[in-house]
User: Which sequence fits this backbone?
């Protein structure tokens, strides 16, 4: 036995096994190293070792890569990319799959040699299909990336991940062709040149596709709106109330002002006595206003349907007192408000005001949690999704986390929504919260752990935030920025070795939170000052029949407010909050960015929600080869270099 030769073979097998992995398919230099190791010194044992390594690669568990085309493309919505194209791609891949299954582990025979005569044409057709012709026909990845489908409401899986999987099966099919050709004693220089330049062009074509595809996901409207499941609101926080000036503490004992402006910043303190046909009608509001009256406007004598206390509305409809309203249903009670005269001297006006519920005994939804939500990095978990959550009278940010595996992929089955904890509300004073720690509740600190939305603190900054270079997101939080009088989003990122999937050691508390002011990466939207995003006088969001779509851009600010009087009697607080999870429903990916956005339709209040930005794999595709390698293989490559 030739022990020296055996040692070299074992060394070669160990070396390529250790150095060539799935991530190597993204690097032309690593591909060249593998090809050269197999082709430059033909040896049956080396070829066998290389074949066993290539055979060990499974893409989503599939050995037959035609199944990957089916899963990621045939079964995905597509439009400009046709069924015929996908079938053609699948056919090319399956021909190589079938040959590999039949001949991959066999010693070269007549059948293999016959197939190998057809192989250059199959690989050439696959090459032309994938990279295009450099003129009118674009490469397949670019066609996928620019296809109008799946549109944003159909996306279940990250498009970069789909293109990455496709690229992997293209390179592996090429390497299978390399090994089959060498086993059949084809010219090693031509076989190697074909594998090298096809791979290099595949890399460029895939990277072009990635550059065309904006790597993000947001929610669309659900099939049905379900309060508490798909959406919620700051219910009752800013809500219209119809009053007579007499009912407020804005008047003294002698006279009214006769102007609704004078009622602003007053309180609703008493019932209303209305003289009608020689009798006095006393009206007390079903729901008190636990706070201030603001933005008051005179509306004249009114007949209105006042709802019962358990309704989310105070009033259903309102008409002039002399209008016929007999045709209108009222699941509450019909109440009349008329201008009154105090001591026959001063006129007391009927006003519609916004009740701002900001006292401790208020039952309105008015709190945002500021508690950071962090992934369990000690378990190698990273953020994979986010949503608004409504729990214990607060709106929270809740993150989905998943275990980061090798090559930037999330380990299947590890994704989970991080628990929020249990909270308790205390109505004393202006109100406060406690969090459960063990068997006890510990009091939280306002402006640190939570903050109330109020008349003078109801602005939300709409920002787009990115992880630092080479890092992934591991956390998110809201802060209340007192300098800007606004709620702001912040994220935390963490260093990672994408190839191994290992997160760096350390303590998250030692790493600075990333906000709009200190971000390393910012879009051009931040080149100027922050601008106001005006919702305006709008109707209740659920009343539109059109699709809500993103209307905001980063570096804007939005003010929470009531709906308009004409359509909704100021009965709702907008925008609503989208409670739907923002995460890929099939394969999860690590995140590199997060944006808080407003989705809506003109004239309606819309929704606050999120856009997640997946980790960008574009720069992982290294297609540039050295001049010496180019010159070494180019004379033996007889096809056009398209890209």
Assistant:
């Amino acid at each position: 036995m030739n022990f020296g030769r055996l040692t070299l073979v074992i060394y070669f097998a160990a070396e390529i096994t250790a150095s060539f992995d799935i991530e190597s398919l993204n690097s032309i230099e690593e591909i060249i190293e593998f090809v050269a190791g197999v082709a430059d010194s033909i040896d049956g044992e080396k070829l066998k070792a290389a074949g066993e390594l290539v055979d060990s690669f499974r893409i989503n568990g599939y050995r037959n890569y035609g199944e990957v085309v089916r899963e990621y493309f045939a079964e995905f919505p597509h439009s400009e990319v046709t069924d015929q194209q996908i079938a053609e791609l699948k056919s090319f891949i399956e021909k190589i799959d079938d040959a590999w299954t039949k001949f991959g582990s066999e010693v070269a025979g007549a059948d293999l040699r016959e197939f190998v005569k057809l192989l250059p044409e199959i690989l050439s057709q696959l090459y032309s299909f994938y990279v295009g012709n450099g003129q009118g026909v674009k490469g397949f990845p670019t066609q996928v990336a620019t296809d109008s489908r799946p549109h944003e409401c159909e996306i279940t899986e990250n498009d970069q991940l789909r293109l990455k999987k496709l690229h992997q099966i293209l390179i592996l099919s090429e390497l299978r062709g390399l090994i089959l050709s060498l086993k059949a004693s084809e010219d090693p220089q031509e076989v190697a040149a074909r594998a090298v330049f096809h791979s290099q062009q595949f890399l460029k074509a895939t990277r072009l596709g990635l550059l065309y595809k904006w790597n993000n996901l947001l929610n669309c409207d659900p099939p049905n709106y379900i309060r508490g499941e798909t959406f919620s609101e700051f219910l009752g926080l800013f809500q219209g109330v119809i009053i007579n000036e007499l009912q407020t503490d804005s008047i003294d004992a002698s006279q009214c002002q006769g102007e609704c402006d004078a009622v602003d910043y007053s309180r609703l303190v008493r019932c209303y006595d209305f003289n009608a046909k020689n009798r006095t009608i006393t009206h007390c509001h079903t729901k008190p206003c636990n706070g201030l009256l603001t933005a008051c406007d005179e509306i004249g004598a009114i007949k209105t349907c006042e709802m019962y206390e358990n309704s989310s509305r105070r009033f259903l409809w309102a008409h002039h007192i002399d209008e016929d309203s007999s045709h209108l249903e009222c699941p509450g009670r019909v109440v009349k408000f008329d201008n009154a005269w105090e001591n026959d001297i001063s006129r007391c006006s009927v006003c519609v005001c916004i009740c701002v519920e900001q006292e401790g005994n208020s039952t309105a939804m008015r709190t945002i949690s500021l508690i950071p939500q962090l992934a369990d990095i000690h378990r190698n978990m990273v953020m994979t999704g986010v949503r608004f959550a409504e729990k214990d009278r607060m709106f929270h940010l809740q993150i989905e986390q998943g275990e980061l595996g090798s090559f930037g992929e999330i380990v299947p089955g590890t994704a989970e929504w991080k628990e929020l904890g249990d909270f308790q509300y205390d109505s004393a004073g202006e109100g406060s919260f406690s969090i459960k720690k063990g068997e006890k509740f510990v009091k939280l600190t306002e402006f640190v752990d939570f903050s109330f939305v109020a008349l003078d603190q109801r602005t939300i900054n709409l920002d787009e935030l990115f992880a630092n270079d080479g890092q992934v997101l591991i956390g998110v939080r809201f802060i209340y920025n007192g300098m800007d009088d606004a709620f702001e989003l912040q994220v935390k990122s963490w260093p990672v070795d994408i190839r191994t999937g290992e997160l760096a050691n350390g303590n998250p508390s030692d790493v600075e939170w990333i906000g709009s002011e200190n971000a390393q990466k910012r879009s051009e939207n931040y080149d100027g000052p922050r601008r106001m995003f005006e919702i305006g006088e709008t109707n209740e969001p659920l009343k539109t029949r059109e699709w809500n779509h993103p209307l905001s851009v980063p570096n804007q600010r939005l003010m929470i407010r009531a709906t308009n009087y004409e359509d909704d009697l100021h009965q709702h607080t907008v925008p609503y909050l989208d409670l739907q999870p923002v995460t890929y429903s099939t394969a999860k990916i690590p995140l590199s960015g997060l944006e808080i956005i407003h989705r809506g339709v003109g004239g309606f209040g819309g929704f606050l929600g999120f856009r997640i930005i997946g980790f960008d794999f574009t720069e992982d595709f290294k297609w540039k080869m050295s001049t010496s390698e180019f010159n070494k293989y180019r004379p033996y490559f007889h096809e056009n270099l398209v890209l």
Observations:
- Residues 159-183 form the longest helix (25 residues).
- Residues 378 and 597 are 31 Å apart (CA to CA).
- The two ends are 49 Å apart (CA to CA).
- Residues 238-357 form one domain.
